[in-house]
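@channel anyone free to eyeball this complex?
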Amino acid sequence: MTFTVFSDEHYMREALKEARYALEKDEVPIGAVVVSQNQIIARAHNLTQTLNDVTAHAEMQAITAAANYLGGKYLKDCTLYVTVEPCVMCAGALRWAQITRVVYGTADDKSGASTAGKSLYHPKTKVEYGLLETDCRELMQHFFREKRK
Amino acid sequence: MTFTVFSDEHYMREALKEARYALEKDEVPIGAVVVSQNQIIARAHNLTQTLNDVTAHAEMQAITAAANYLGGKYLKDCTLYVTVEPCVMCAGALRWAQITRVVYGTADDKSGASTAGKSLYHPKTKVEYGLLETDCRELMQHFFREKRK
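replying in thread with the prediction:
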C-alpha cells in the first residue's frame, strides 16, 4: 500500500484552483480548502456576488462544510489553506471553530484580520503565510485591474 | 390609514422572542431582527448546536436573510437589533454589509467585538447598547446557570 503525504504547497494549489473558479464567475478570486488527516474535507470559493451575501466568503463556506463532514463544530487537527488573508469576520469564525492551523497565501492590507491590531484567532491556532504568495496575489491583482478597465 | 412607527424597544422585544426560541432548543439564547423602513425584514436566533456550525449566530443568519429580502448585499438604512453584543465574526460581517445601525441589549465581556480594542464595525455604522439590558442579560445568565447544574 502506498501512502502519500501531500505538502502544504499541494493543498495551496488546490485552494488556488478554487480561487480560479471564483474568477470565472467574476467573483473576487479567493479559494480555500480544509485538510484533516492529509485529506481535503472541504473546498470552497468566494460567492458573495452570486449569492448576494457578504457572509459567503470562501473560508466561511469551508468552515461550515468541514464541520458538516466531521459531524462536529470544532475543526481540531484541521488546517485551512486560503489564498488570501482571512478578514475579521473569517478570523472570528475560525476562532470559534478552534481550528489548529491557518495557512494563507497573500496578505490583505486593507481588510485582513491582522489590521485589527491584535490577534483575532484562537490562542491555540497556528497562523502561517506567504505560501505561493505570488500566485495568490497576482490572481487578485488581475481581477482588480480588469475591474478598473 | 393608520401608520404606526414602532419604537426601538418594540424591536428589541422581538429579538428577545427569538432569543427565547433559541433557549427552547437548548441553544445559547441570542436573538436578532433586522428592520428596514419600520418593518422587520429578517429574524433569527442562534442555531450553532442544532446546525453543528459555529457560523450560525443569530446575526449572521439575519444578515443573510435581510440581504435576500432586499435583493442586495448591503444593509443600508437597516438596523440590527440583537439581544447580546455581536462577536468579532458578526461585527466583521456587519462591516461588510455596511449596516446603518446596530442596537444590542447586553455586553459580552468575553467574546464581544469591543474586546478587540478598536472598532470592527464600518465607520458609517452607528452602534448603541443597553436597550432592555436586564432582560437580555438575565436570559443568558439563566441559560448558563442551568448548564452548570
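from a first look: Helices of chain A lie at 8-24, 48-51, 58-70, 88-97, 133-148.
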